[in-house]
Amino acid sequence: MMNMAQISNTQKAAVLMMLFGEKPAANVLRNLSPREVQHLGAAMYTVGDVDQKMVDAIINEFLVDLNNETGMGLGAPNYIRSVMNDALGEDKAQSVLSRINPGISERPIEILDWMDARAIAELILDEHPQIIALVVACLDYNLAANVLALLPDEMQPDVLHRIASLNTVQPEPLKELEEVMQRKFKASSTSRASQIGGIKAAARILNFTRQNMEQRILKDIRKEDKELMQAIEDNMFVFDNLVQSDDRSLQTLLRSVEPELLTLALKGANEELRDKLLGCMSTRAAANITDEMEAMGPVRLTEVQEAQRQIIAIARKMADEGAIVLAGRGGEEMV
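The structure corresponding to this sequence follows.
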């Protein structure tokens, strides 16, 4: 039997979904991304033994959170899109919405997000590397990493290199891309420029790969373009990203990190992350680390960065093994 300390935010959402009834729950699912649907659907299978006391606690927590939201903000983007579509038609509405809020633009060939990584890899394997790069760049980063892993090893560095070199893609190449995909499945067309790929996208895709695959790809890219490799590396999962991870994962991680290494790493951490990590330790251990940091005095930035890199290496290894979840590497929870 689970208690409130053990249940995740995703499971809390799953309990609420079970209470909503079929039609309201279906309406919620329609507004979620494929990855969110997958996580929430899996969580719904795990909350069968939740007792009434916990259900009441979850409902109360939800109502408190809901009360803190403004009525105007709830569902506003979907409402605005629906009104615009009805008034102007889908194409004109999207054009207007893109100018009002560029971030609201849908990505091309969005149907791919609902496909299995292996199916996508098989679908694009015989296409030109630039087409493959465009398709992979359009995917959710975790899905993109899985597709990249299923491509031939010798193809992976070239594809990631092309993704990192992408930026704003004009309508014509996107239309060509969709025409290629339409030979295999039905896709909706777009008529606007889209932000696809780039160094940050390449870095985030690599964040979701295993370390040995990441190192092999970066090594191959380095042979072709050392500066590009460095730029990708600089945008990958870094020490400050740990602040996004859940307390349980951080507690597990810190048990595998030597206190001396953590003390050195925290010397260069921002206050939010420092408080977060110290809060995941016992009061005595946190006090010892704080005392050690004060006694240490000034240290070289390069030493701090090396300590942080070592901790991130430990964290990524543990994430690859499934021992912890790193937010930003496929471990985000819905709230």
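Residues 186-194, 330-335 have pLDDT under 50 and may be disordered.
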